[in-house]
Amino acid sequence: MSDNSKITLGKTLRDARIAKGFTLDDLQQSTKIQKRYLIAIEDQNFDELPGDFYVRAFIKQYADMVDLDGAELLKQFDSTLPSTQTQEYVDKVNENNPETRSQQRKVDDRYVKLRRTIPIIGIVVVVLVVLIGIWVAASRSGHSTTKNNVDSSSVSVSGSSTKKSSSSKSSSKSTSSKKASAASFKQLSTTSTGSTWEMKHASSKPKISLSATGSAWTSVSIAGSTVWQGTLSASTSHTLTVPSSATSVTFNFGNAPAMSVKVDGKKFKFNSATSTSAASSTTSSSTTTGATTTTTSSSTNTSSQVQAVTLEFK
């Protein structure tokens, strides 16, 4: 039997790592993937990873870090990897598909345009009705003086309608601004394993902005499904919109101290409550039930631990 038949995915990755002069600790620091998961990948013990979906995600990130083509490597060893063709995987792929997101943005844009157009149409209809009423009254009178008065009234009514329209828009903007400024985060409880948060006065479709001061792996989940994941740096950022039907969102941070999160433009200071409890933890896990956020880590080094933070909208 030839030597090529003995080549495995784990051996390929290990050889590439050694050739680059990287240790497992180096990879853990750069990818934010826990060392025990890196060892499991090299030994092909995929059952030790968090789930089938993360097997392929972690392998691709490992391969890219050692200058291998992650996508090509997954294709080459596809038969040796756990099957991910479940409904959950399909849903995750659809959520992360650029075409799907583009179609959703088009639908949202049409909805926003429709909401903006309806008030304008209503104002136009009201003005037309008033003008028609004035024209009917002027026709019945048949006097030139009445016609002059009607013209004056028409101008007055039109001006009044414009002022009311401007006043209505100004009031709407003021109400929206007050709601945005009233948005607040509240820490409900804190335990040795995590913390619970809620956000009051969030918009119907909260906009989330993610940025980092250094390399940090992050994933975002809604209703138990990952809608985005990736590694951010100081020069990159990511923005996403939470569907109106969602009641909460869960963040998994590989380097929480380096992460910055804004919701509807307001900074979410989750680190102030999670950093203390996370530093003393020795195992990695995240549990989200209803409005509860549990944050734990697998290392005393807060820069490499994974934290899970759930934010519930009220």
Automatic annotation (TrEMBL):
Residues 142-151 have a biased composition (Polar residues). The chain crosses the membrane at residues 118-138. InterPro entries: Bact_Cytoskel_RodZ, Lambda_DNA-bd_dom_sf, RodZ-like_C. The keyword Amino-acid biosynthesis does not apply. The keyword Transmembrane applies. Gene3D superfamilies: lambda repressor-like DNA-binding domains. Keywords: Membrane, Transmembrane, Transmembrane helix. Residues 210-276 form the Cytoskeleton protein RodZ-like C-terminal domain. It comes from the Bacteria. Residues 152-176, 273-304 have a biased composition (Low complexity). Coiled coil: none annotated. Residues 85-107, 142-176, 273-307 are annotated as: Disordered. PANTHER family: CYTOSKELETON PROTEIN RODZ, PTHR34475. This is Helix-turn-helix domain-containing protein. It comes from Levilactobacillus tangyuanensis.
